[in-house]
Amino acid sequence: MAIVSIEKATRHYQDGDQVVEALRGLDLSIEPGEFTAIMGPSGSGKTTLLNLIGGMDTPTSGRVTVSGKEVSSMSKTERSDLRRDHVGFIFQSYNLIPVLTAQENTEFVLLLQGKSEAERNQRAREILKAVGLEGMEGRRPAELSGGQQQRVAVARAIATKPTIVLADEPTANLDSETKAELIGLMRRMNEEEGVTFLFSTHDHEIIDVARRVVTLRDGQVSSDEHR
Ligand SMILES: Nc1ncnc2c1ncn2[C@@H]1O[C@H](COP(=O)(O)OP(=O)(O)OP(=O)(O)O)[C@@H](O)[C@H]1O
Ligand SMILES: [Mg+2]
Hints:
Blueprint: E1 4-15, E2 18-30, E3 35-39, H1 46-53, E4 61-66, E5 69-70, H2 76-86, E6 87-90, H3 102-112, H4 117-130, H5 146-158, E7 164-168, H6 176-193, E8 197-200, H7 204-209, E9 212-217, E10 220-226
Parallel strand pairs: 3-8, 3-9, 6-7, 7-8
Antiparallel strand pairs: 1-2, 1-4, 4-5, 9-10
Helix pairs in contact: 3-4, 3-5, 4-5, 5-6
Bound molecules: adenosine-5'-triphosphate (ATP) and magnesium ion (MG).
């Protein structure tokens, strides 16, 4: 069963007295275990699409379903529960909490979910080890390199075993070494932990390793290539 299903989604923004049609009847479904890149020119609707799937926004018309739940008909609270329980995010600037250690940053969403201390602790340790940060659990972001902070951000995104991990241009602003490390880590988490990834990108190094490449043009899917 598809974990994300989008049917005839439109998203119109009001810009003064102009209407911008960011999505124009977009159809897309994502199956568990995918590693999918969304590409397309600037303004083609990539961020708008990710915002709908992540429950940050709702479509003007059409249906967006994540994990069998329809986002379009949810209240704000229900959408924030959807994000907490089903969606992991990797942000360009990592968004780690500076006063918290790697362990605490990784446990944060588990805490919001009301998981017990023992369970949080064990899951965060396990996932930090999986991303290669064993022994650094007690360090704060300022005591970690950029690449290590990024690994904490990946650990945090996948700690809750989300249905899908979303990333909007995750490799923008990264030097080539850090970028290669992030791409390798995401691929490994996809293969070894079965994490589903969906990211927007202009970056050919990610597009090269993607298993599916969806191209948007003017708010619609213009090509969909499975590899
Ligand atoms: N809040 C907003 N108000 C008005 N127009 C918006 C808003 N957000 C996005 N748009 C418009 O919607 C269209 C799609 O924007 P979107 O951010 O989804 O594109 P994108 O594919 O992510 O582009 P980029 O590659 O530059 O990040 C663009 O024409 C953009 O100007
Ligand atoms: Mg964008």
